[in-house]
Amino acid sequence: MDNLYYSPSEKMVFWIAGYVDFTGTYRNIPNVMEYAEQFQRKFAAKEVKTKIIKSAGNKGKRLFFASIDSQPVGAFNIGERRNMDEWLSQ
User: Contacts for 22-26 with beta carbons within 8 Å, 24 or more apart?
Assistant: First the structure.
């Protein structure tokens, strides 16, 4: 899974999924629910949250995030000094 990050200070895994379809009408863009379910299964998360990124670097892209206790394999550790929102605002 590309664009996967872990915030140890928040115990939060987050994934910049890219552009995701809200309506289910576009065939080449995955549906939000499909991605949320995939993310939840992969990390055995109790709850998955999502939002649209507003910062310049990833503006308009869909973000999925969930609380988990340890860093998943393949996730980039953003370090103790930053949280998810600070990382995304770069």
Answer: none
Please state the pTM of the whole predicted model.
0.84
Most distant CA pair in the chain, distance: 41
String of DSSP letters for 26-90: -TTS-BHHHHHHHHHHHHT-S--EEEE--SGGGTT-EEEEEE-SSPPTTPEE--TT--HHHHHT-
* pLDDT for the residue numbered 56: 82
- Phi, psi angles (nearest 5°) of residue 46: -70, -40
CB 6 within 8 A of CB 67: no
Residue 67: burial class (beta carbons within 10 Å; 0-12, 13-18, 19+): middle
Average pLDDT, the chain: 87
Please tell me the predicted confidence (pLDDT) of residue 23. Answer: 59
